[in-house]
Design goal:
Elements lengths: L1 E5 L1 E4 L2 E2 L3 E6 L2 E7 L10 E2 L4 E4 L1 E6 L1 E2 L2 E2 L5 H10 L5 E9 L3 H17 L7 E2 L2 E4 L21 H8 L2 H4 L2 E6 L6 H10 L3 E4 L6 H10 L3 E2 L15 H8 L4 E5 L7 H11 L4 E3 L11 E5 L2 E5 L19 H10 L4 H7 L2 H6 L16 E4 L5 E6 L2 E5 L5
Parallel strand pairs: 1-6, 2-7, 8-11, 11-12, 11-13, 13-14, 14-15, 15-16, 16-17, 17-18
Antiparallel strand pairs: 1-4, 2-3, 4-5, 7-21, 9-10, 19-20, 21-22, 22-23
């Protein structure tokens, strides 16, 4: 048994006063107000700052120079091992649209790598988020248009009927207005995989039909989707108003500017899930990188872009997203909940993203200026900053 005592702890969406968190065998046993009870040799008393659940990123194409579609075991592990330095303790490796044979091969490899590293104190791999190829040609963004497909029963079957491929998947982003999409959503959800609407020109009515069929999320709100209109609410209006939908928000202040990010938090509240949509350029200097099959350039002070200037993922890390939103005056408890419990719940993972009895002991110690000082995965230290003391 061990315990961590902290001046402030994020519990059930609110920042408490001093509390101790008791841990045993990688799980949280109890949360107790006050820290005086900590006496054991394995106890840790934090002198300042805030203890929160580990962050969960549902959309991560890559980072630290590596793209997940092409990553070998060493590169995959490096990303997972470095993510705790950004407060992330669980993530969905994300594959964008590409050749379906290439994607299915990568999905099989992803299952093998998830199992290979499952017992290590590195960020947890929650399964692949497949963003495409069932996307709208009208809202393609940076996805290679030659690989877009309609979600026919045959193509959906290629993802669901092969056990090794299906087991890789945690979420699929698709455009719900495409022919056959509603039946595809029902079939995907029945297989235990979450569906997010994205790269879509759907109307609000088509979004409602998608939610009726089982879709529960909206991929990177405002980007590559029909916007908010005063007579046609579109994808954005549906995401903000339908309580069944969790909007994913890229808070790099480029994909969505600061005042609009704050507006989303006020309107959608704790339905909002912060995501990075990061690609290989995250955590790296300006230069040339890959996003799936796409060549991408990162210039200082900008977001990654493909050759025609279209935004191609981000170079954001989730701790920066937290600092961005808190710096705009948003409630830190709400921001941190949107980076931890909300995305965990979006995958049905009630054992992650919260400080509560029975949950995994995935924790982050933040400084008073919201810099990550220390991260635990399963109660084991996965990252410690030089300034942690």
């Amino acid at each position: 048994m061990a315990g961590i005592g902290a001046p402030r702890v994020l519990v059930e969406g609110a920042l408490t006063g001093p509390a101790s968190v008791d841990l045993d065998q990688g799980r949280i046993v109890e949360v107790v107000p006050g820290v005086d009870r900590l006496t054991g040799p394995r106890d840790v008393r934090l002198s300042h700052g805030t203890l929160t659940p580990g962050l969960v990123d549902l959309q991560l194409n890559g980072a630290f120079g590596h793209d997940f579609v092409a990553a070998d075991a060493s590169a995959w592990r490096e990303v997972a091992a470095r993510l705790p330095s950004t407060g992330v303790t669980a993530f969905c490796p994300t594959f964008i649209t590409g050749d379906l044979d290439t994607l299915t091969t990568a999905l099989v490899r992803a299952v093998e790598l998830r199992a290979k590293f499952a017992q290590e104190p590195i960020a947890r791999d929650l399964g692949v988020h497949l963003e495409g190829p069932f996307l709208s040609p009208a809202r393609v963004g940076t996805h290679p248009p030659q690989h877009l497909r309609e979600p026919t029963p045959e193509l959906v079957g290629r993802l669901l009927d092969d056990d090794a491929v299906r087991d890789a998947l945690a979420m699929i982003t698709l455009a719900p207005e495409l022919p056959g999409a509603l039946e595809a959503i029902r079939r995907i959800v029945a297989a235990g995989i979450r569906v997010s609407a994205g790269h879509t020109d759907a109307t609000a009515a088509e979004m409602s039909a998608a939610a009726d069929a089982g879709a529960t999320m909206v991929t990177h709100l405002f980007n590559a989707q029909r916007g908010l209109g005063h007579r046609e609410p579109g994808v954005v209006g549906a995401a903000l108003s339908d309580p069944r939908l969790t909007p994913g928000l890229i808070a790099d202040l480029h994909h969505v500017v600061g005042p609009v990010c704050s507006l989303v938090l006020r309107v959608a509240g704790e339905r909002t899930a912060l995501v990075t949509d990061a690609m290989a350029a995250a955590g790296m200097p300006p230069g040339q990188y890959r996003l799936g099959d796409v060549d991408v350039t990162l210039v200082e002070g900008d977001v990654p872009r493909n050759l025609d200037g279209t935004i191609a993922g981000s170079a954001l890390t989730l701790d920066v997203a937290v600092r961005n939103l808190v710096g705009l005056g948003n409630d830190p408890a709400r921001v941190l909940t949107s980076a931890s419990r909300v995305p965990a719940d979006a995958l049905g993972r009630t054992d992650l993203g919260r400080i509560a009895p029975g949950a995994a002991a995935d924790l982050v110690w933040w400084s008073d200026d919201w810099t990550v000082l220390k991260t635990w995965v399963g109660g084991v230290v996965a990252y410690e900053a030089d300034r942690a003391a």
